[in-house]
Prior knowledge:
alpha+beta; two-stranded antiparallel sheet; 2 strands; about 20% strand; elongated
Amino acid sequence: MEPMFDETALIAETTYKAVRSSGKGGQNVNKVSTKVELSFAVADSAVLTDEQKALGV
């Protein structure tokens, strides 16, 4: 079975950002970036088909 999308191109369309996690955290609270946020714009993706994009709505 062939893949539904190009994994390398999909990864290239994502952005990652390390940020400080909110909430309790012990001694390192508000000092260390321990959370990672991933962003992906489904509507702007060149990898996904229009049908695949519609499933996410």
